[in-house]
Amino acid sequence: MDSNESAQKLLPSAVVKMIASLVTVTLVTAACVSVNIGPKGAERSQGVEFNAPGSPYESLKETPADGAWQNRANGNSISYFSTCNDPADPSLETVARELFAGLAEMKEVATHRGTFNGRESLEMEVEGRVEGVLTRIRSLMFKKNGCLYTLSHIGIPKSFEQDRSRFNEFMRSFQAP
Questions:
Q1: What is the 3-state secondary structure (H, E, C) of 17-67?
Q2: pTM assigned to the model
Q3: How many CB atoms lie within 10 A of CB 64?
Q4: CATH number at residue 18
Q5: Number of structural domains in the chain
C-alpha cells in the first residue's frame, strides 16, 4: 500500500474527529451567545439503542463521538453524536452548515427532509476535500426529547458505496430514547 492509499484509509478517522469538533464548537458557541454565560458542558444522550456495524468494522476508542466504527479494509467510518439540553437549540440547517464548514470545495450531492424516529430530520450527502483528499459524508440530523443526534457515514468516493447498505442498516436500528 502506498502512502496515498494509507492516508486515504486513515482519513475518515480524521473526519470523524473533525465532525465531532465542529458539532461541539457549533453547539458550545451557540450556547455562549444565547445565554451569555458560557457552556456548562455537553450532555450526552443516555439509553440510545442500535446495532453496531459488524465485521470488517471495528470500534474506534479514541474519538469524541458517542459511538464510532471504522471499516479497516477501506477506511470508511460510521458514527453518531448526541448533545442534550443545549439552551441554544440550533436548527437542523444551522447544524448542517456548521458540520460541513470545514470541508474545502464542498458540494451538496443530495438533501432530504423527512422523519426519523418519529421526528423531523435533515439528511445530507456532501463531497469536499479534507487535507486535500476528496471525501464523501452522509449525515442524518434530528432532535428528540431535548437531544440533537447526528449519524454519519464517511469515506472516500471510490469506496463509499461499499458501505452504504451498512449505514442504512445502522440507521434502521438506531432508536433514540
A1: HHHHHHHHHHHHHHHHHHHCCCCCCCECCCCCECCCCCCCEEECCCCCCCE
A2: 0.80
A3: 15
A4: 3.40.1000.10
A5: 1
Residue 124 lies in domain = 3-173
Q: What angle do CA 153, 132, 154 make, to 5 degrees?
A: 5
Which cell numbers hold the place of 130? 479534507
Under DSSP, the state recorded for 76 is: -
Neighbours of 103 (CB within 10 A): 20
**Alpha-helical segments (H) within the chain:** 3-35, 92-99, 157-160, 164-173
Q: What is the pLDDT of residues 68-84, one digit of tens each?
A: 999 999 999 999 999 99
**pLDDT tens-digit readout, 46-68:** 999 999 999 999 999 888 899 99
The amino acid at residue 36 is N
Distances (CA, A) of 123 to 35, 112, 177: 29, 5, 20
Q: Which residues pair with 81 in a beta bridge?
A: 150
C-alpha cell belonging to residue 42: 455537553
Residue 13's contacts (CB-CB under 8 Å, 6 or more residues apart) are: 60, 63, 70, 75, 77
Omega of the bond prior to 56 within 30 degrees of 0, cis?
Answer: yes
Contact between 48 and 174 (Cβ < 8 Å): yes
